[in-house]
Structures are given as structure tokens and as C-alpha cells.
Amino acid sequence: MDNLAIARILGEIADLLEIKSDNPFKIRAYRNGADIAANHPHSLVALDEAGLREIPGIGKDLAARIREIAETGDTDYHRELIAAFPPSILDLLHLQGVGPKTVAVFYRELGVRTLEDLEQAAATGRIRALRGMGQKKEALILKALEERKRHAGRHLLPDAQDTARALVAFLHERAPSADLTPVGSLRRGCDSCGDLDILASGAPSTLMDGFVSFEQVERVLARGETKSSILLRGGFQADLRLVPLESRGAALQYFTGSKAHNIALRDRAIGLGLKLNEYGVFRTVDEARVAGETEEGVYEALGLQWTPPELREARGEIEAASVRRLPRLVDLGDLRGDLHMHTTETDGKDDVQAMAEAAREAGLEYVAITDHSQSLAMANGLDERRALAHAARIRAEDAQHGVRVLAGIECDIRADGTLDLENDCLASLDFVVASVHSGFNQDRQQMTDRLLRAIDNPYVDVIGHPTGRRILRREPYPVEIEAVIDAAAGRGVAMEINSNPNRLDLNDVHARIARDRGVSLVISSDTHSRHGFGVLRWGIIVARRAWLGPEHVLNTRPFDEFRASLRRNRVRR
Ligand code: DGT
Ligand code: CA
Ligand code: CA
Ligand code: ZN
């Protein structure tokens, strides 16, 4: 039982009391207790009642509840409150823009107990009829419901990887000789993951006991001999499958997916007189086993080159593998430069020197410092005068720390598609990333025209985070991305794969289109501190899923070659 689990129970008590319209002081006391528990630096479970009461804000009642939670995993009080409501009531609380007070009204006035009830109520106009709600609130609720459905239970790739890593480390201690591999969407490098899938081969059957007793388990969903599922605190669901060693490769292949890739592979097997499943590859005529121990063997048996997991989406990889023409994919080690980062001059946390030193330590040979331009006032964006003064200071650091440093800018693209700084200023810099940061509510045509106009500006080298999406949080703005890609191809403007794991923008599908139409990509960190270069690995995963080789990525080139390839430095013929 860790502090966060205690905090969650106390917070739920506060929520339920609020839905019940209980005493406001009591509600506040539990809410505070939840905050204190969540932020306390030491384990509360280790403290007795006297020790707990020494913490400011924890009184007699709260201390007793925390002891009870520490000893039994929950409190009777919490259980009684839950029993007084339908259990689904807590789902309502987790909706965007819906707090306990609103839930209380829905429950009392409309008898809403579940998300489905709420959807019904909103769809039939019963929310707007409530006092203090109105049509706007009803529309917001419908939107929140829709988004919840779309994102339900999905997580960002780095969060999925961290959780999977902790789980695998835990299992590894219990079965040191077993082979443990995360599979599913995580192994394919998808930008968000549903559940986590872990495959264990050569493990004792007792590993299942370990799995269901993992310290982060909130609930065991299913416990079987070869498959179990658990729900972790924080909302992750995880599956563990145990397979015999002889089936390891076939199971790796099967549970990595994707479903579409697997279906295409199975059809291919049938065409070859073979049967493919998670146990192996078998001859249809006599069931003789022809492969299954290794994943390479499975692909080989089907006449295919082993296919990197990032490509397994039924997007042409099987055809390419059958003629041994899979692309050589870009790797983190291929990157020589990073072309998007911020410093203390705008909203970054470190100065130019610190960024340059950290870039060298990250193995990079060159960087472009690209602080914000003036219309990002919140970020203290640069006007022409400051941009030029900053450029002079940046150039003074060039080659002083074992890396080449370019004076760049991340220039805002204004609502009408003009750039936020005068062309003279842009021309005196070394490198310009142009990005949209505001005015997302334009329609598709306006936004497309806006980007096309920016691409027409001769000093734009790269379009930054071209669709503006925030994974699981904000949809991309409406834009005719193929028209933008074609314009970029025509003008020789590059497009960014922004490696911030909340963005990953361009995404894999769009970056592949860009590549196919002759647009160069850059893989950039957009880091705001010297500790942020590590995110480049997420951008690399997107690039691999987009079938990019080093030749498609500008910042894999040696510095001089990279510079010469920029639109502004190209020799015109
Ligand atoms: P997720 O969890 O939504 O991020 O996506 P995945 O790809 O991890 O999907 P998941 O967890 O449902 O299943 C893991 C893999 O197992 C999936 O990529 C392929 C395989 N698989 C699951 N169900 C089926 C199925 O019905 N047919 C086939 N051929 N493969 C399946
Ligand atoms: Ca999965
Ligand atoms: Ca699964
Ligand atoms: Zn930006």
C-alpha cells in the first residue's frame, strides 16, 4: 500500500461525500488528507497513529482511517459510501468538466447512474433543462463522453514503456531464466497503447502467482494457467501469457500483431499449404511442425524476411519482405543534429551553453537553437531586435563545446499565414522552423492556406509540429495535410517529426506520405531543458514506423552537408 493508493481512497471518500452533499468541512478534511498523502515524502504505512497525527492537517479521524487502510487495504467508511451509490457513479466523476457537485445533480434530479444514462440524458435534452446547466454544458458533456470513448484506457507510449519495464523487472526477479518480452502495440511503437501485453517463455507456472501479486495491482481481472490479466493503479491493464520455449517465436509474432498484419500473414500461410498460429507454423497435410522456436524462423517459413515490429501494420511490409526489399530503417545512432530547442531566452530552462554541452553529451554533432518569436508573448517570444541579439550570442558559442551551434528561430505562423518576424530578420538567421501555435479554430481551408503561405516564404526551412495534435488530449487542427506535403515538396521545405511524446507530429502515416512525395523530414526534440534530448528516441520510432531510412532525414547528414542542403543555402541551378 503506497501513499498514492491511500490518497486515492481518501479522495474518493471526499468525492462521494460531495455527491451526497455532506458536511463541507468533512469534505474538505478528506480532500486535504488526500493531498497530504499524495505529496508526503515518506511512506505513511510505516507510521502509527501518533506519528500520523504529527503531520500538519491530519487529525484523529483521518489518522485512524489511514491506519485502517494501511492494515486492511481499505476502510469500512469508504465501503459504506460506495455501497450507498451505484458503483458506476465514480466513472462519471472522471469525465472532463464534471465534478462531484454536477454528478450529485445528475444523480438526484435525473437518476443518472452510469455513463450510458448520462449520454441518454444529454442526447434527449434533459441536461439543458436543469437549473444552471444550459445547452452549452450539455454539448460539453456530449463531447467529453465522445472523447472518453475514443481515448478510454489508452496511454502515452513512454508511460506504457515505464510501466512495462517495472513489471518485467518484477517478473524477472521471480523467474531469472525466463525470457520476458513486452509485445503488442508497445513493441510496435504505437504512439498510444491500450493494454500492456507481456510474453514469458521458459518460465515456471508459478510466475502467474508473482504476476497477480505485483505491488501496483489494483484488481486481478482473470487468473489462469497460461494467461492472466490485471488492472494496475494508474489505469493500466496488463496481460501475461506463458508459452513453452518451442513456441516462443510463434507467440512473439502472434502477440506483437498488429491484427491486420497477422491476418495477412495467416492468409499467406494458407496459400503456402501451411497453418500459422501462436504455437508455430505447421504443414496442413500432416500437421508437421516447420517453425515456431524463433520469430525469424516463422517469417522464414513463410518465405519472408524478418520484419521489424514497427512495420507490422499491413502497409505493404509483407509484399516488401517477400522480395527481400524491406527498408533499412533509421536508428537513434544515425542522428547527428537536433534542430528544435528552447533556452532561457524564451521559455526554456537552460542557456545556450548548457544546451550545447548537453547535446554533445547526448552524442550530437550540431544543434539549432530555435526560441519562440514575439507573438508567443506568454513564452516571452523574441521580436526582431532580440532575435538578432540572441543570434549573435548563439554564434559566439558555436564550436566552443564540441558541437556546431546554429542561430535559429521557431517563428510563429500568424493567422493569415505571414510569419511573425520580418524577412530581413529571418534571412539573417541560420535556420527557421515555422509553426502554428494559436488560432486553432480556423476551418480546413483557412488552415491549409495559412500553411501553404508559410511554405511560400523563402526563409522557412522546416514546418514544425505540422498538425498541432496533442496525443489523447487535442485532435489535430483541420488541415489538408497532403496539400501541405505537396507544397513542401515543391518548395524544398522539410517537415518535422516533433519527438515530444505528447505530440509525435507528423505522425507515422503522414511522415510516410511526405517521404513518398520527396519531402525531407527532420527529427527534433523541441526540448525546453538540457535534460530533454532523450525524447529523440520517440521521434525515431515514428520515423521507423514511417519507413524512413537515414537518407530521408536531414539531421542524419554531416554538418556541412546538412547546411548545404537547406533551402536557403542550396546552390540554385
Ligand atoms: P492496443 O492494446 O489497443 O494498444 O493494441 P494491441 O495491438 O496491443 O492489441 P491487443 O492487446 O488487443 O492484442 C495484442 C496482439 O495480439 C495484437 O496486436 C495481435 C494479437 N491478437 C489479438 N487478438 C487477435 C485476433 O483476434 N486475431 C489475430 N490474428 N491476432 C490477434
Ligand atoms: Ca495491447
Ligand atoms: Ca492485450
Ligand atoms: Zn512549437
Essential attributes:
single chain, 573 residues, alpha/beta, DNA polymerase, domain 1, Beta Polymerase, domain 2, Beta Polymerase, domain 3, 4 domains, seven-stranded parallel beta sheet, five-stranded mixed beta sheet, 24 helices, binds 2'-deoxyguanosine-5'-triphosphate, binds calcium ion, binds zinc ion
Q: What's the alpha carbon Rg, rounded to whole Å? A: 28 Å
Tell me about the largest β-sheet. 7 strands, parallel
At the third CATH level, what is the topology name of the largest domain? Answer: TIM Barrel
Strand order of the largest sheet: 11-12-13-14-15-16-17
What's the CATH H-level homologous superfamily of the largest domain?
Answer: Metal-dependent hydrolases
Mean pLDDT: 94
Distance between the termini: 69 Å
Verbal overview:
The chain is of the alpha/beta class. It has 4 domains: 3-150, DNA polymerase, domain 1; 155-243, Beta Polymerase, domain 2, CATH 3.30.460.10; 248-322, DNA polymerase, thumb domain (Beta Polymerase, domain 3, 2-Layer Sandwich), CATH 3.30.210; 332-572, TIM Barrel. 43% of the residues lie in helices and 14% in strands. It contains 24 helices and 17 strands. Strands 11-12-13-14-15-16-17 form a 7-stranded parallel beta sheet. A 5-stranded mixed beta sheet has the order 2-4-7-6-5, with helices on both faces. Strand 5 (217-223) and strand 6 form a beta hairpin. Helix 1 (3-19) packs antiparallel against helix 2 (24-39), helix 8 (115-123) crosses helix 9 (134-151) and helix 22 crosses helix 23 (536-545). The chain is globular and about 75 Å long. The termini are far apart. The model has no long low-confidence stretch (mean pLDDT 94). Bound molecules: 2'-deoxyguanosine-5'-triphosphate (DGT), calcium ion (2 copies) and zinc ion (ZN). The site of one calcium ion (CA) has 4 residues, from loops. One calcium ion is lined by residues 184-185, 194-195, 197.
